[in-house]
Design goal:
This protein is globular. The chain has two domains: 22-193, no CATH class; 195-394, I/LWEQ domain (Up-down Bundle). By secondary structure, the protein is mostly helical. The chain is 76% helix and 0% strand. The chain contains 16 helices and no strands. Helix 9 packs parallel to helix 15 and helix 13 packs antiparallel against helix 14.
Length: 394
Amino acid sequence: MTPPRSNGDRLGRIQPEPRQEESVKPLELFFDLVFVLGFTQCTALMAAQPTWPGIGRGMLALAVLWWAWVGYAWLTSVIDPEEGAIRLAMFAAMAGLLIVALCVPEAFGDRAVPFAVAYAVVRGGHILLYVLASRGDPAMRHSVAGLALSSAIAVSLLFGAAFLDSGWQEALWVVAIVLDFGEPAVMGMDGWTLVPAHFAERHNLVIILALGESIVALGVASQSDLTAGVIVTAVLGIGLAAALWWTYFDVVALVTERRLTQAAEGRERNTLARDSYTYLHYPMVAGIILVALGLERTLAHLDESLDHVAGFALLGGTAIYLLGHVAMRLRNARTLNVQRLVLAVVLLALVPAVTAVDAIVTLAVVNVALWVMIAYETSRYDDRRYRLRHGLEP
């Protein structure tokens, strides 16, 4: 009989141990805190450059951060991040991600090179851990090899972009992001594996982190006299964040997790996870970050109208978030959420009108529109919603 390993032996182990639990562990929550700073920095980048190019750069930076995050979300659904030396490797990745986040506001300027170097370290560490995790699993090893190749090319493109002028720089970022996002679609999902409940919870929590950025944006922007206008805007901002929370966590998160759990293990489940979570959660997170920017600009211009860029951030961000939900329902249930699609289209159509009213009015309109939709959905789907939320058979 083999004697149990001592704590020292376990700490020194390099070989990752398979994940046994379905719930997210404290180290994963700790790891994700770095992404809170990354989200804040993306908002800061756009706030410092409140133009269409600035919005574009913020979304590019967010896409790069998102791909790093989803890589580690898949990884920690395979291995236990708190066992042995893997814990230390996660801490090292956090340090690299912190440098990446600090560089985000100048990722297209003076800190482009440090950004690319730190990002390369983060992605390289992720690949190394996956190589260790895939020992004895030829299918996963093959998938990891494809991921390593695409990651190396994408990181090289980001590094090369650091030496180019504006315009070419952003174009190279787009190529890198398309390559990264396209790799799972081109190479397939056969070799991967995941724990459904853990994977879903991890993405649920990142939505919470993104919503937290909207709260942070309100706090940062309200560093002034606490006037009646500031108080009303803060309350409306919380109302908007709560509405965004409701539209996701009331039913959507539950349905998506249930479908992932019920999907056949292997290609079917992995493909569903890729589409519903890895791909379609990005527009939702991007929408929330844009809303955070819109809230910040609203507090800065209470008695003025928003310009088209800030108006798009507030209205368009909400619309993009809702369109992510529409796409998820199409992917999972093959049905169309008409009310969310219609509301998204209406909000986008209203963007040109934001210059005609005060910013606080625009924020109030978004609130009313979302809560009316929520009331309609809650009333229409009351019985089915109740049964779903209480784990009853439909």
